[in-house]
Structure formats: C-alpha cells, structure tokens
Amino acid sequence: MKICHLDLETSYIIGAVWGMWEQNVATTIQDPYILGFGYAWNHVDKVTWVGMSDFPAFYKKDSTNDKLVVKELHRIVTEADVIVAHNGKAFDVKKMNGRFLIHGFPPATFKVVDTKTVAKQFGFASNKLDELGRLLLAERKVKHEGIEMWTRCMAKQIDEQAWKQMATYCKQDVVLLKKLYKLMLPWIQNHPNWNAYEDLPPSCTNCGSAQIKKDGNAYTRTTIVQQYKCKRCGCVMRGESRRVTNIR
Questions:
Q1: What residues does 84 pair with on adjacent strands?
Q2: To the nearest 10°, the Cα dihedral for 160, 162, 164, 166?
Q3: Which H or E element spans position 130?
Q4: DSSP codes, 184-210
Q5: In angstroms, what CA-CA distances link 151 with 7, 92, 158?
C-alpha cells in the first residue's frame, strides 16, 4: 500500500471590498490557485517540494497559471493508495480536486487519513498542526514573515528568496505530518486495511506488520472475538469470532 503524506500551499483570494470592517467581498478579482505542494512517501525519508517557480518559462507567461504544478500533483496522488493530510478532507483534497477539474484532469482514486480528524478524539486545546507538533513532538512549524511571504510568491516576477522560504515552510509541515501520523497510527479508526492492498500473511490492518500477537478477547451478547495487538505500531484489532449460546 502506497501512502503519501501531502501538504498544499495555495494563494489567497484577491477581492474588492467597500470597507475594512465586517465587509462582504463585492467581487472576486483573483481566485485561489496552488502555489506548490510538499509530499513524502511513507516508506522513504525524503520530502519533496514542487512549486510554480520550478517552471520559470511557464511562470513568466502567466504567474497565476498553476497547470504544471497541478499536473505533477495529479501524477503523485494517482500513484497513491492513501493520502495523509492535516485538515485534508476539508482543505487539501477539495482544493486539489477543484484544480484537477479546472485543468481537465480526471479524478484520482485514493483513501484519505486526516490527522486533524484523528486529533479531535483526544480533547487537546488546539488541533492545529503547530500546536500538536509542540505538544506531542517537541517540534514546531517554520516561522515566517506572515502573509507577506504569500504576497511575494504571488508576484509577477519570481522572488527566489520567497519561494525558498515557502518550500522550507511546506516541507517542515510534511515532516511534522509524517511524525504525527506515525504517533497516532494505533489510534486511527477505520484506517485503510493493509491486507486489502497487499498479499500478506495475517498482518496489522494499520501498518502491515506481521508482528502481531493475541491480546485477549472482546465480547458481545452472543460472540467472543479474538483481539490482536501489533508489536510495531501498537494497533489493537479484532480477528476471528465464535458464537456462544450460554451467555445470559
């Protein structure tokens, strides 16, 4: 099973407003587009960044046309069985599917693991990636100059320093994401089942490891279910069950 850890960076919306306080946007001047993305495969350490500045000739013609970035993004996610992203269901997946549609790319088929959704079961003060990194990993997102970095990356001429900062910022997000996923793995309910993707001996549903051991039983009114625990990731899963007729 190929798992891809993914983080998108998009432009902001440019619109017209009549005032500075609690105003509705009168009209949209520039719709958001994908500035770039960072990704890492679950089985390798390398984090890769792909940004609009990687295509300078195309950028020079139209600094808002993200088609080549989207093309590469589509190639990557098409290879993946599972996409891991923080707030991925509400943001990353919707944004990239919108750009796929605009540029004429077909739908990509993959499962999504959203680490922000997983984090919500723990009752943390904040489910933001930066705060989870601080609390659980003793690591933080890369600090930057704020919206000015996005403004510089959206300029008509390539600002090499700004794009380098953007790449560093996004790649660190992927590093945090990957570590957070590994830490949360035994807690992820309904994780895509490795056994459905690989021809494996009896294995952990969450990480694919064959290092599993019996871990007691679970009970319903009429059945006893054998539980197993993964020695590698700690996931507890259910196996075979047997019916009983003398439970009162």
A1: 5, 113
A2: -150
A3: helix 129-132
A4: HGGG-TTPPPHHHHS--SS--TTT--S
A5: 19, 20, 11
CB of 229 closer than 8 Å to CB of 216: no
161 CB neighbour count, 10 Å cutoff: 9
Tokens of 101: 């549609």
Question: What is the rounded CA–CA span in Å between residue 135 and residue 121?
Answer: 15
Taking the model in full, what pTM does it have?
A: 0.89
Average pLDDT of the chain to the nearest whole number: 92
Query: How do 34-41 and 48-51 pair as beta strands?
Result: antiparallel
Query: Which residues are 228's β-sheet partners?
Result: 214, 237
Rounded Cα–Cα distance for residues 194 and 207 (Å): 7
Of 194 and 186, the structure prediction assigns the larger pLDDT to 186
Model confidence pLDDT, tens digit, residues 37-80: 999 999 899 999 999 999 999 999 999 999 999 999 999 999 99
Q: In Å, what is the CA distance from 233 to each residue of 70, 182, 245?
A: 34, 8, 35
The Cα angle at residue 236 between residues 222 and 234, in degrees rounded to 5: 165
CB 178 within 8 A of CB 40: yes
